[in-house]
Design goal:
Blueprint lengths: L21 E2 L10 H14 L9 H16 L8 E4 L2 H11 L11 E5 L11 H7 L2 E5 L8 H11 L4 E5 L13 H11 L2 E5 L11 H4 L3 E5 L11 E5 L49 H15 L1 H12 L2 H7 L15 E4 L6 H10 L2 E2 L1 E3 L2 E4 L7 H11 L1
Parallel strand pairs: 1-10, 3-4, 3-5, 5-6, 6-7
Antiparallel strand pairs: 2-8, 7-8, 9-12, 11-12
Helix pairs in contact: 1-8, 2-8
Length: 390
């Protein structure tokens, strides 16, 4: 049995945040590991003396990150990966190109799940007005369990009038799981695009690009990719080949590593999704950090992370239910992000403040507290949560 096939053990010694902190809040921001932090420190040190920097150094970090991310999502072609600064940037690429989708017609619909993250909603304001589109928001069922009924409702709203479906792998507030394979199949049947926000899942849950076959997958880097803020990755399928980028970055053109020829103004783009890279994507400080975090995740492996989080929370969840909290059944959620619905009389914000006073960090989202453990968490962290809620 290889190390990658063995069950993960607690990795707390790799994360140098305070020893007495019970940080169950990776869905807000991941703590940097020693390896990721050191990669950033080393990168800054290298920049103290830029002697010897070559044109190829502007590109090599991005090449490695694209290869690592492609491996993480089972995408066989790393050239389909783009380096982006944020979810809003990646979704703006989708919005920019939507009117050029084959079969697109004015007056079609965009299907969203209710309560989505603002970047997945506001991105469509411009194209909605210009193309007279209608936003169809599929409401979450009022009662738990919600996953099956929610998925069925989304599938029912995807029709030949649908131009685009925007849905995550799991809901960012509640952890409810969406059936991306079924949704993707339905989108292809009616000629709609599928754009997936993977920020709250990629890195912690297995994702298979070749089975789901979305048109776009967009991920921020500072949550479950365990990397720095303001740097992310996106994957664009064949629908975006030859599309319109948001900016005309010089590095995205052919032969742009030949600095002595830059004034020849190459009109052709580098292949694949390279045209969708943000300007100055080299990011000499943060790119090595994202590279280190992706390597660490490929060592952890998302399926092992899920198993670790499942075992970590197994004893606590029945206790929380006994205290009056409600949780989606296991089949309808992930194990790394749990929407713990508070009793009707309780205030989620007040609960999170009380927990923080006991050095337990979670988030308030909607009518739930969002508990998001990772491999640095221990049974002591979970017990601190349960005792504080009790």
């Amino acid at each position: 049995m290889t190390m990658e096939n063995k069950a993960l053990v607690c990795q707390r010694d790799q994360y140098p945040y305070p020893a007495d902190a019970h940080y169950l809040n990776c869905a807000t921001r991941a703590p940097l590991s020693k390896a990721v932090a050191q990669a950033g420190i080393d990168a800054i040190q290298r920049q103290l003396n830029p002697m010897g920097l070559t044109p190829d150094d502007f590109f090599s970090g991005g090449v490695t990150v694209r290869q690592l991310f492609a491996q993480l999502i089972n995408q066989p072609d790393p050239e389909r990966i783009a380096i982006i600064p944020s979810i809003s940037y990646g979704m703006a690429v989708v919005a920019q190109n939507l009117p050029y989708k084959p079969g697109f017609r004015k007056g079609q619909t965009i299907v969203l799940a209710t309560g989505e993250f603002p970047s997945d909603v506001l991105a469509w304001d411009g194209v909605k007005q210009e193309q007279e589109l209608t936003i169809v928001t599929v409401e979450m069922p009022a009662q738990l369990p919600a996953a099956d009924a929610w998925n069925e409702a989304i599938l029912a709203r995807i029709t030949p009038e649908t131009a685009l479906v925007v849905v995550p792998m799991i809901h960012w507030m509640y952890g409810t799981k969406f059936d991306l394979e079924a949704i993707g199949e339905r989108c292809r049947a009616v000629g709609a695009w599928l754009a997936v926000d993977g920020t709250q899942s990629i890195g912690a849950m297995p994702f298979n690009w070749q089975r789901i076959r979305p048109d776009a997958l967009v991920c921020a880097g500072y949550k479950w990719l365990m990397g720095p803020y303001s740097l992310g990755v996106a994957c664009f399928g064949p629908a975006f080949d030859g599309g319109i980028p948001l900016e005309e970055a010089w590095m995205n053109r052919l032969d742009s590593n030949q600095f002595h020829r830059l004034a020849e103004y190459q009109p052709a783009y580098r292949p694949g999704a390279y045209r969708y890279n943000m300007g100055e994507h080299s990011n000499f400080t943060q790119m090595p950090m994202l590279e280190a975090s992706l390597k660490q995740l490929l060592h952890y492996q998302p399926d092992r992370i899920q198993a670790y989080c499942k075992n970590l929370m197994a004893d606590a969840l029945p206790e929380l239910v006994s205290l009056g909290y409600r949780i989606e059944p296991e089949s309808g959620r992930g194990h790394h992000l749990l929407g713990v619905w508070v009793p009707d009389h309780a205030d989620p914000m007040a609960i999170t403040r009380a927990l923080l006073a006991r050095n337990v960090s979670v988030s308030a989202r909607g009518r739930a507290i969002r508990v998001s453990p990772h491999v640095y968490n221990s049974p002591e962290d979970v017990q601190a949560l349960v005792e504080a809620l009790r």
